[in-house]
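Postdoc handover notes: sequence design on the structure in folder B. Input tokens:
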């Protein structure tokens, strides 16, 4: 007798347990760990989907056991590694096993959808018919009543084989859809794999070091610190090439697929149809298709955003995380996983080599490299051997000189000169919309979204105010709602305003704008970037969307219109974020033959993160920043847990949170934990829900988590929290 340990797909925490089922005799041969099955569940014995996560000859309980009803697929959908990973994630991210499995696996949609179209010859259902034709008659009958129907339903519930449906399609009676291959957005089919460059000596040394790791037993993740334009992508492709030659597969994570079309294209040029790309616009069916291809070994390289880390390859050789400092690697939904942590765990479980690359590694990552937890690799030279020339422009001087334009004289001259040389320019601003906010010049009243407690942003094209939190739209008042004066003024500058000003100053220049407003439609990112790459514009104006990974050889000037916007945020990470952003966007200049020039306009040129960015000095920035973190007990010297309560009744939210604070104090020792708050969140209201939070710092992540969740458990048993939503985040990217 065989027994199976099974997790069901039911999400509730109470059933987040492993259940034991009997394996019927006729399944004993076939059943394997990781398979998807149907099992009767609960009192009503409702058929439920589940996953086999263990098999044994002994039952784990003495109770009478139910039997497995059906094995769903021919092969296990979960590998041993993914089962182990899910168990680890449950503890690490405090969620259910089902949550973990759902984020690892595609929706098993039943891949085909059948539609009744009754074109073509008529289908008579009289006559002496064979059993095969009988199935066709049955299918037509069902589809006439109810169309479309999923193929797996016709197969499982009515025993109609796929061949019968194929015949009906030939006759033009039905149409089988939903099984199209993923749309080939990147024209993968027609790309001829080729190797464009041979590595430089510096690249080769790094490549050799990584490849020699393949056979090593005790692996550690690599941190590849390579200045912008040092050719990190070629390192990745060479390493992957070697892994593929050894019959292994590779996962490549990029911060956001739509923002990095050039990086994706380089992998496709190198590996052709061995590559598959995951992106957010895929349908469930396409995702399922892709998953199957990976599972069956029909592709060897999976490129995608953080979720691609769960690619179920049989034998993962290497996981690459490009621009590892990007906050998009952390999920904000349950399970709140960090793709970097997942990759490191996969390394531990399956021995894959992990390479995290960046020109500006996250402070925490570089700290790990210093401690030996990661192995540091460096590319210190640009391929063209010329780092860009970076200057800060003090905007206070411009004011004093009477220049009220948003461009300093220096930047204006540089733009003019670059246009004359027929080279390209990137103008960068970390804001979208026309002006940052609209306020009254007389009384200072700022137009604010009443539901979200954040200021409205002015959008010039529609000539109205938009809340970037809830999307609500408001007309601009003629009179100040507070004092009634008519002096309403637009403050700050957005990408739209920059574009307008460029058009005024340089009417001959062709300008493209890339921000959240111009990229709403499908594929618009790629179209804008391609147009710029083809030289159809002289100037690209954009938000942080254009800071990452772009490689335009003709860009020789980068202008950062206002560096201070991102500095003013109250978060402990704001210096790091600003430094990274300035370094990344500076890195877009002068990547080919001409030397690049970067002008950073700022009101605080003496700020350390601007100074270090100007000097291209990551190491000293790091030293200063890590000291600040050490003194303030911020990560990596502590872990931060934010517990956020939100609800429509502000009084109830505040009083509940105060009660929770008391519970925290009761169970925690002062020397182990530091509590900040309760206090209002940075954005204290979103969509009419008030937000208050407590921040708890602790030295040990595991202990901190256990403590907070223990207290929450105790608290929730005592207090009725129906009207209040509780949200817990460990080491959030931004403190809410
Ligand atoms: P990074 O990601 O480090 O900023 P990229 O990988 O984009 O740098 O490389 C920068 C530029 O140098 C690209 O245009 C790339 O094609 C080119 N390049 C990379 N390696 C070589 C090489 N060995 N020989 C010639 N050109 C190279
Ligand atoms: Zn709002
Ligand atoms: Zn006013």
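Designed sequence:
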């Amino acid at each position: 007798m065989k027994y199976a340990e099974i997790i069901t797909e039911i999400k509730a925490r109470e059933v987040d347990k492993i259940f034991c089922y009997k394996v019927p005799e006729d399944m004993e041969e076939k059943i394997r760990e990781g398979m998807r099955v149907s099992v009767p569940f609960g009192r009503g014995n409702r058929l439920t989907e589940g996953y086999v996560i263990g098999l044994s000859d002994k039952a784990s309980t003495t109770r009478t056991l139910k039997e497995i009803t059906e094995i769903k697929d021919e092969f296990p959908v979960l590998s041993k590694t993914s089962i182990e990973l899910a168990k680890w994630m449950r503890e690490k991210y405090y969620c259910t096993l089902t949550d973990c499995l759902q984020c690892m696996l595609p929706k098993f949609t039943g891949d085909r959808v059948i539609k009744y179209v009754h074109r073509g010859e008529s289908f008579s259902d009289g006559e002496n018919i064979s059993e095969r034709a009988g199935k066709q008659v049955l299918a037509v009958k069902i589809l006439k009543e109810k169309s479309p129907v999923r193929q797996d339903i016709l197969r499982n519930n009515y025993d109609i084989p796929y061949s019968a449906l194929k015949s009906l399609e030939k006759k033009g009676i039905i149409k089988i859809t939903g099984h199209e291959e993923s749309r080939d957005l990147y024209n993968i089919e027609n790309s001829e794999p080729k190797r464009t460059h041979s590595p430089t000596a510096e690249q080769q040394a790094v490549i050799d070091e990584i490849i020699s790791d393949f056979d090593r037993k005790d692996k550690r993740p690599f941190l590849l610190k390579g200045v912008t334009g040092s050719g990190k992508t070629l390192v990745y492709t060479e390493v992957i090439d070697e892994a593929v030659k050894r019959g292994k597969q590779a996962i490549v994570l990029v911060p956001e697929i739509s923002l990095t079309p050039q990086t994706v294209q380089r992998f496709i040029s190198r590996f052709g149809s061995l590559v598959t790309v995951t992106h957010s616009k895929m349908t469930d069916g396409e995702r399922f298709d892709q998953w199957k291809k990976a599972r069956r070994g029909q592709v060897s390289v999976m490129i995608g955003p953080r979720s691609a880390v769960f690619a179920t390859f049989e034998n993962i050789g290497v996981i690459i995380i490009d621009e590892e400092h990007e906050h998009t690697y952390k999920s904000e939904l349950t399970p709140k996983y960090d793709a970097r942590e997942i990759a490191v765990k996969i390394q531990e479980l399956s021995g894959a080599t992990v390479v995290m690359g960046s020109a500006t590694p996250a402070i925490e990552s570089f700290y790990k490299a210093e401690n030996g937890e990661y192995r540091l690799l460096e590319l210190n030279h640009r391929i063209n051997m010329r780092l860009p020339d970076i200057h800060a422009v003090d905007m206070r001087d411009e004011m004093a000189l009477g220049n009220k334009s948003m461009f300093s004289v220096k930047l204006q001259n540089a733009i003019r000169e670059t246009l004359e040389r027929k080279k390209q320019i990137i103008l960068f601003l970390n804001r979208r919309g026309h002006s940052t906010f609209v306020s009254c010049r007389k009384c200072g009243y700022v137009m604010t979204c009443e539901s979200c407690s954040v200021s409205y942003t002015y959008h010039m094209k529609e000539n109205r105010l938009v809340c970037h939190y809830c999307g609500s739209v408001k007309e601009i008042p003629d009179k100040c709602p507070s004092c009634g004066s008519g002096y309403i003024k637009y403050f700050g500058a957005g990408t739209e305003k920059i574009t307008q000003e460029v058009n005024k100053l340089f009417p001959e220049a062709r300008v493209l704008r890339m921000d959240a407003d111009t990229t709403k439609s499908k594929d618009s990112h790629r179209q804008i970037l391609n147009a710029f790459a083809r030289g159809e514009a002289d100037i690209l104006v954009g938000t942080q969307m254009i800071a990452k990974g772009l490689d335009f050889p003709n860009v020789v000037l980068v202008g950062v219109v206002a560096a201070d916007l991102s500095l003013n945020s109250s978060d402990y990470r704001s210096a790091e974020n600003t430094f990274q952003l300035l370094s990344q966007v500076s890195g877009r200049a002068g990547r080919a033959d001409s030397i690049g020039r970067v002008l950073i306009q700022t009101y605080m040129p003496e700020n350390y993160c601007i100074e270090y960015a100007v000097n291209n000095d990551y190491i000293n920035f790091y030293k200063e920043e890590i000291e600040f973190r050490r003194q303030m007990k911020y990560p990596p010297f502590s872990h931060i847990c934010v517990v956020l309560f939100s609800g429509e009744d502000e009084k109830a939210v505040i009083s509940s949170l105060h009660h929770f604070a008391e519970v925290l104090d009761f169970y925690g020792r002062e020397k182990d934990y530091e509590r900040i708050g309760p206090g209002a969140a940075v954005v204290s209201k979103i969509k009419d829900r008030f937000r208050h939070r407590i921040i708890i710092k602790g030295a040990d992540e595991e202990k901190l988590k256990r403590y907070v969740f223990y207290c929450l458990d105790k608290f929730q048993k005592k207090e009725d929290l129906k009207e209040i939503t509780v949200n817990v985040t460990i080491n959030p990217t931004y403190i809410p």
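Context for whoever picks this up: The two ends are 54 Å apart (CA to CA). Don't rerun without checking with the PI first.
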